[in-house]
Design goal:
InterPro entries: DUF2794. Pfam families: DUF2794. This is DUF2794 domain-containing protein. This protein is an alpha+beta fold. The chain has a domain of about 80 residues. It contains three helices and five strands. Strands 1-2-3-4-5 form a five-stranded antiparallel beta sheet. A hairpin with a 4-residue loop joins β1 and β2. It is globular, with a radius of gyration of 27 Å.
Length: about 140
């Protein structure tokens, strides 16, 4: 009897894959070490994305990329998708005790601000309001 004949006998329902055969057992893959990646936490991303939204609304930024690596996490900001990032906001935990885990790096590679609190580091993007004395 072919599988088509079995379908006719069973009422037209196709036979389940592997019917009549014992299930195949797969060997487990060799144990792999999970490489821990540095990532931004939800609150950190919230702060960064709030800033990003303001800058997009003002027309200064257009695109972003997030990279999680073994040693650091990077949020890159672009004016155009095809160019080098204007700024990189980096989280590097190995620098946490020395200079601070967070840094803002400009397009030329210069560190614009570094610190242990993300909110303070992101203040480098705030527009300075110039107060004038009006007489």
């Amino acid at each position: 009897m072919s599988e088509f004949d079995e379908d006719a006998v069973s009422g037209g329902a196709p036979a389940p894959a592997g019917a009549g055969h014992p299930p195949m057992q797969r060997s487990a893959p060799p144990a792999q070490r999970a490489v821990p990646l540095v990532a931004f936490h939800r609150r950190e991303l919230d702060q960064i994305l709030r800033l990003y939204g303001r800058m997009v609304a003002s027309g200064e930024w257009r695109d972003y990329a997030i990279d999680h690596m073994k040693e650091k996490a990077v949020f890159s900001v672009f004016r155009r998708t095809s160019e080098m990032p204007l700024f990189r906001i980096e989280k590097d935990p190995k620098n946490a005790r020395r200079q601070g885990a967070y840094s803002v790096i400009g397009a030329g590679g210069a560190i614009l601000k570094r610190g242990s609190e993300l909110a303070q580091v992101l203040k480098v993007f705030e527009k300075k309001r110039h107060l004038r004395l009006v007489l």
